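Running co-folding for manganese (II) ion.
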Amino acid sequence: MPKYSIDEFTPKKEDRFTFGLWTVGNRGRDPFGDVVRDAISPTTIVKRLSELGAYGVNLHDNDLGPIDATQAEHNKILGEFKKALNDYGMKVPMTTVSLFYHPVFRDGAFTSSDARIRAYAIQKTLHAIDLGVELGSEIFVLWGGREGIEVDAGKDAMEALKWYREAVNYLTSYVTDRKLNMKFALEAKPNEPRGDIYLPTTGHMLAFIETLDHPEIVGVNPEVAHEHMSGLNFYHSIAQSIDAGKLFHIDLNDQKPGRYDQDLRFGSENIKPMFFLVKLLEESGYSGPLHFDAHAYRSEDEEGVWDFALGCMRSYNILKSKAKSFANDAEVKEILAVLAKAGGNDEFSLDRYSSVGATKLKDHNFDIEHLAKRGYGYERLDQLLFEHLIGVRSGFAVAKQMVAAK
Ligand code: GCO
Ligand code: MN
Ligand code: MN
């Protein structure tokens, strides 16, 4: 018996859902305890995710095979993996590189104080880019997990940024020189595993990108958990990324405030913020992959892992449907229309400066006492949103209202 009936929220390939091999493959190891689940082979992951309705899988260079695999071992693993992708109609839209797991990266990769390690990190990334190209990926994620410090006395932050920039410039030059169809997406995180990580938020990344040699092929890969760790509003970070034309990829998951990086099932904690996120992604026409960088609770066995994966995708589709019904709710529309009308017209053409306009604006007498008195109606609007999300105001109630409003 299927656990969930087939309904409008059942994931489909067209939904563009992807998971990292490392996400469903997470074995539950944490700093206090060992693995709790057996390894699941990449080919099984491809098969099971495809059956659940996912579009593809993403991977680090070392997710497929160990860092010290021989060429023959590597070819064998890659061959089996490609066959599974083909058999189950799965894509690999994004590839990334592990610059954090091996002890050689204990003081960072692109920002290691050791020039040999900085060079090795670039070499490892060049090979990972080649692997991504071979698998058909068009996005390469750079997550600088170890690019940071515990001891600022040991590393000059200006110097570290310079090394970081040199590395990204080297990689983008490689891609343009070899005419590879690959763009980069930089992923920020404020801390963990380092005490402090350089370029800690998506906003920092966006500013950094403008200082690069090839900014046109570099964007961001914001992660819900990471922005929430910084206490930021993820929806706002995504709006700014889209506004800058830089939302190349996204890491969906969830996070309780003030905790370590939890990478929880999408929608499991912050329902309202995730509602606005999904609404924005859908309404803005974002067409990249919807990637889940999350993992099942440590309490779960393998069955729980597939429940987790299906849950991520269903929750996205449920929020997508809620976003539509909220936008179409007659009462919500009315409140928004009243709000827009009460806001007056743009009689000063603020979208465009002119000298005459500035003189007119300077001379105008605003009745700020009157303006200061108005209320905005946000209480009622937010309560309607709550009722939508909780499910007491959907379907029938909204349809009835829409009829009444005609
Ligand atoms: C984290 C990170 C990682 C990266 C991934 C890609 O949870 O700390 O998000 O999961 O996204 O390793 O490099
Ligand atoms: Mn994370
Ligand atoms: Mn991530």
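Result summary
The chain has a mean pLDDT of 95.
The chain has two domains: 13-324, 329-405.
Job closed.
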